[in-house]
Write a structure and sequence with these properties.
Number of domains: 2
Oligomer: single chain
CATH topology of the largest domain: Alpha-Beta Plaits
Radius of gyration: 19 Å
Number of strands: 10
Largest sheet: 10 strands, mixed
CATH superfamily of the largest domain: Pseudouridine synthase I, catalytic domain, C-terminal subdomain
Shape: globular
Number of helices: 5
Structural class: alpha+beta
CATH architecture of the largest domain: 2-Layer Sandwich
Length: about 250
């Protein structure tokens, strides 16, 4: 039996046309495109494992996947071969050969998500795929103050979709901050893991703070209640990007 080779693939993709990473029956997925591309230059039996499922329509700058193959290829050659077979909205931009102990999900120390909001009186077409358009005035200072309630180790069951199937809903958030430049608002969240729709529900709740529908001091109480009905709407997927992962 040939020795297996392990490659850490760092990818960027525009998720607008995909149902997420995971292969599903209801539409094209990033994983399916990667497997199709790999079959163009790799022998049968290779596997590609992703760091997370990602929601339909979510983007990535630093998504990480693990390629396992019996073929021994130079790192740059792996990236070039994939990109020659991938559609234009998916790219492998960094490859590193790793040991079999590496896992894109389980050896990750944290993940960094960024949510973008375009806050203005009118839409700009070029931003629509990569930011959530929100026309109402937002108090960014209040949103940033409320975001501090999420920092630390908490049970986020109230900030997860009812589709969540995991038993352990406790996660640790290292940082959560809201900034604004011109009409662009950016919410950056770094944590050791995220539940299904968790970031988008957090954003939806912070938007309610920004419009004054929720008081800053109420956010900690909503989190402690563990009640999904008290957390607000799930923000659209188009504004969410997986920026990258840090590994142990």
């Amino acid at each position: 039996m040939s020795e297996k080779n392990y490659y850490k693939l760092t990818m960027a993709f525009d998720g607008s046309n995909y149902v997420g990473w995971q292969i599903q029956k209801n539409g094209p997925s990033i994983h399916a495109e990667m497997m199709k591309a790999g079959s163009g230059f790799l022998e049968d039996g290779f596997t590609i494992t992703g760091c997370s499922r990602t929601d339909s329509g979510v983007h990535a700058l630093g998504y990480v996947a693990l390629l396992v193959t019996e073929r021994d290829i130079k790192e740059r050659g792996v990236a070039g071969a994939f990109n020659a077979h991938l559609p234009r909205d998916i790219v492998v931009h960094h490859v590193k050969q790793v040991t079999k102990d590496f896992h894109p999900r389980y050896t990750a120390k944290n993940k960094h998500y960024r949510y973008r909001i375009y806050n203005n009186n009118y839409r700009i077409p070029q931003f629509l795929h990569y930011a959530h358009y929100f026309y109402k005035d937002l108090n960014v200072e209040s949103m940033d103050e409320a975001a501090k309630a999420f920092v630390g180790t908490h049970d986020f069951v109230g900030f997860s979709s009812t589709k969540t199937t995991v038993e352990d809903t406790v996660r640790t958030i290292e940082s959560c901050c809201v900034t604004k430049v011109d009409h662009h608002i950016q919410i950056d969240i770094v944590g050791n893991g995220f539940l299904y729709n968790m970031v988008r529900i957090i954003v939806g709740s912070l938007l309610e703070v920004g419009t004054g529908k929720i008081e800053v001091h109420d956010m900690a109480n909503i989190l402690a209640s563990k009640d999904r009905n008290k957390a607000k709407k799930t923000a659209p997927a188009c504004g969410l990007t997986l920026v990258g992962l840090e590994y142990m």
